[in-house]
Amino acid sequence: MEKKYCLGIDYGTQSCRALLVEVDTGNEIGDYEQSYPHAVMEEVLPDNITKLPPDWALQHPEDYLYCLSTVTKGVLEKYNVNTEDVIGVGVDFTACTIIPVDKNMEPLCFDEKYKSNPHAYVKLWKHHAAQKYADKINEVAKKRGETFPKLYGGKISSEWLIPKVMQIIDEAPEIYEATDQFIEAGDWVVYKLTGEVKRSSCFAGYKGLWHKRNGYPTKEFLGAIDEKYRNMVEDKISTDIYPLGDKAGEINQVGMNLTGLKQGTAVAVAIIDAHAAVPAAGICEKSKMLMIMGTSTCHMLLNKDEIIVPGIAGLVEDGILPDFIGYEAGQACVGDHFGWFVKNCISEKYINECKEKDINIHTLLTEKASKLRVGESGLIALDWWNGNRSVLVDADLTGLIMGCTLTTKPEEIYRALIEATAFGTKMIIDTFKEYGVEIKELYAAGGIAQKNSLMMQIYSDVTNMDIHICDSNQAVALGSAMFGAVAAGRDKGGYDTIIEAVDKMSKVKEEYYKPIRENNEIYEKLFNEYKLLHDYFGRGGNDVMKRLKDIKLSYK
Ligand SMILES: Nc1ncnc2c1ncn2[C@@H]1O[C@H](COP(=O)(O)OP(=O)(O)O)[C@@H](O)[C@H]1O
Ligand SMILES: O=C(CO)[C@H](O)[C@H](O)COP(=O)(O)O
User: Fold this and answer.
1) Residues near 392 by Cβ (< 8 Å), separated by ≥ 6?
2) Is residue 54 within 8 Å of 555, Cβ to Cβ?
3) What digits encode the pLDDT tens for the residues 86-114?
4) Using CA of residue 164, residue 165, residue 168, residue 169, what is the dihedral sign?
5) Domain Carbohydrate kinase FGGY N-terminal: where (predicted)?
6) Mean pLDDT across the stretch 194-218?
C-alpha cells in the first residue's frame, strides 16, 4: 500500500510553516517556512502614513494567504509527494488573533475604503491596547458576582476576543457596523480551504469566554458593561462551535488553487498553536506540564478536575484533548525579549565576532552566557517586556533589569533575561501546585526548546525538575498534522481518535535535562528576590510602571 501523509500548517507570530508527516509513524518528511511579508505591524500601517499607538499589534491577512500557498505548494514540490496520498490537513494559529470580515468572509482591510483604518486589520494575540476594556469586564463581572472569570484565573485578559471587539465598538463604530463577523484567523484559514465556517471550541473556549454548556457571556452581562455591547455576540460572533478532532470539511476548488492539495482532502477543525503541541509531545494523561517556548511561552496541562487556579489563562473542558480539562497559563514575552535585546542592544564588536565564527547572535550570546556562574553577574530581571499574562494578568506591567553597573556585559543581560523567564515559569508552576493541581513532570517543545540547551538547563535548575524535550523541530505543526490524520479517519488511512494518533505519531527525546543541585541552591535565593520584585511591582506595592505608562500615553 502507498504511504499516506498528513500536513500540519502552523501559523506562528513571525512566520508560517507546513510540515509533511507520515501517518503511520509520525516521521517528518520535511517542512517549508515563509515569514509574513508585513511581519507584525506595531508602529505604522502598510500605507506608511497611518501611525499606530502604543500596545498595538496588527497583522495583514493577505500574508496568511500568501504564506498558505507558499508553504503548502513549497513542501509538496520539495518532497515530491503525490497529493493523492495526502489524506488530511490540520491548521493551528496563534490566538486570540481576530479578523473583522464582511458577508463574503473577506477581511475589511482588503476593501480600499478601509485600507487606512487600523481597526480593519487583524488584531494579533499580542495587541494589548484593549486593556481598559478588559478592566471594565473584570470590574463589572466582580460587581455582579459572575462566576465565569474563575475559569480564566479570575481575570479576563486584554488579549482576548470580547475586549478586542469592545475596543472596535468604541473606537471605530464604522468598522463594527461594516463587520459581518469577527473570526479567529485559524477558523478563517479553515474556511478558505473548505468553504465551511466551522469555529473551533479551542479558540472560543480559551479566548472567547465560551463554555461548552453555558455558551458566551450573556447579553445581560455585556449590556451591564454598556448598552452598546449588549448584542455583540448575537450580531457579530458565530455561536456555531465544533470540537477538536472533528473534520471541518474538505479542500474545495478555492482551497485546491491556494494549496495545490487535492479536492476532497480532509481538513480538521482549527486549533490554537500551543495546544497542538500537547499530543505531539506524547501527552495524553494528567500531571505533565508542557511548555511551548518561542516568541511567548504557553504552559499546558491536562487534568480530570476543574480546579480554580488564580491567574492562569484558562481551563476548558475538552479544550486540548477530549475527556480532560485543559489548563493553560502563559508568559507573553520569552523569545520576544531576547529578540528585542539582540536587535537593539548589541555592539559592532559582537556582530563582527558572529561573522568571524559564522554563528548568529543568539548562539554567540548563549555561548558566552553559558560560561557565567549562577548569580555571578549580580543582575536580576522581570520578564514583563510584553506585560504579564500569568499569574498577574496585567498587560500594563513592563520589563525591568536590576543590578546593572558600568562593567555589565551583554551576555550577562541575555542570561538575566533567560533567568527571568525561568522564574516566571516557576511562579506559574508554584501557583498551580499551591491550589492543588499536580505537576509531576515538565516537558518542553517549540523553537527555543530545540535551539537553546543553556536555557533548558537553567529552567531545570530553577524549577528543580527534570525536563523532557519533544523530539520534533516543529512540534506544533506535528500536532496539527495529527489532527489532520484524525479528520481523515481510519477509512482513509488515518485515525479515529487523537489518542490513537498520539500512540503512533508523537515523539519525545530519550535524553532529558536534570537539575544541578548547586545551581538550584543559588537559584532558590535569586527566585526569592524575583518574587519580592514581582509582588512589589506587580501586586500594588509600587505602581510606578503604570504611572510611567500613563505619562508615555499622554504624548500620543
Ligand atoms: N537560540 C535562541 N535562543 C533563544 N531564543 C531564540 C533563539 N533563536 C531565536 N530565538 C527567539 O525565538 C523566537 C522565535 O521562536 P520560534 O519558536 O521560532 O517562533 P514562534 O514563536 O513564532 O512560533 C524569537 O522571538 C527569537 O527572538
Ligand atoms: O496565546 C497564545 C496561545 O494560547 C498564542 O498563540 C501564543 O502566545 C503565541 O504563540 P508563539 O509564541 O508560538 O508565537
Assistant:
1) 311, 534, 538, 539
2) no
3) 999 999 999 999 999 999 999 999 999 99
4) negative
5) 5-277
6) 96
Contact 267, 247 (CB under 8 A): yes
End-to-end CA distance of the chain: 64
Please tell me whether residue 323 adopts helix, strand or coil conformation: coil
Ligand nearest to the CA of 336: 1
Assigned C-alpha cell, 61: 491577512
DSSP 495: -
Contact call for residues 200 and 242 (beta carbons, < 8 A):
yes
Of residues 99, 88, 297, 281, the one with CA closest to residue 186: 99
* Span 139-169, pLDDT tens digits: 999 999 999 999 998 899 999 999 999 999 9
In one-letter notation, the amino acid at residue 514 is K
Among the bound ligands, name the one nearest to the CA of residue 275.
2
Q: Is the shortest distance between the CB of 186 and ligand 1 below 6 Å?
A: no
pLDDT over 70 for what percent of the chain?
A: 100
Rounded CA-CA distance 355/361 in Å is 9
ipTM over 0.90: yes
Query: Which ligand 1 atom is at minimum distance from the Cα of 13?
Result: 22
How does pLDDT run across 51-73, given as a tens digit for each residue? 999 999 999 999 999 999 999 99
> Residue 545 carries which side chain, given as an amino acid letter?
M
C-alpha cell at 152: 480564566
Q: Which three cell numbers stand for residue 327?
A: 489548563
- Protein residue whose Cα sits closest to atom 9 of ligand 2: 94
CB 68 within 8 A of CB 189: yes
- Any atom of ligand 2 within 6 Å of the Cβ of 392: no
**Is there a contact between 270 and 186 (Cβ–Cβ < 8 Å)?**
yes
- The model's confidence at residue 311, banded by pLDDT at 50, 70 and 90, is confident
- Model confidence band, residue 1 (pLDDT cutoffs 50, 70, 90): low
Q: Which atom of ligand 2 is nearest to the CA of 293?
A: 12
Cβ–ligand 2 distance for 296 under 6 Å, the answer yes
Confidence of residue 308 (pLDDT cuts 50, 70, 90): very high
User: How many angstroms separate the CA atoms of 387 and 538, rounded?
Assistant: 10
Q: How far is the CA of 160 from the centre of ligand 2 (A)?
A: 12
Query: 320 in ligand 2 pocket by Cβ < 6 Å?
Result: no
Give the type of residue at 555. Answer: Y
Pocket test for ligand 2, best of 10, 11, 13 (most atoms within 8 A of CB): 13
Question: CB of 297 within 8 A of CB of 336?
Answer: no
Whether residue 271 has its Cβ less than 6 Å from ligand 2: no
Ligand 1 pocket mutation pick from 9, 92, 354, 362 by most atoms within 8 angstroms of CB: 362
d(CA 136, CA 177): 22
Q: Which DSSP helix (H) or strand (E) runs through 319?
A: none
| Closest C-alpha residue for ligand 1 atom 7 | 362
Distance CA 306, CA 303 (A): 8
C-alpha cell at 184: 479567529
Ligand 2 pocket check for 331: Cβ under 6 Å: no
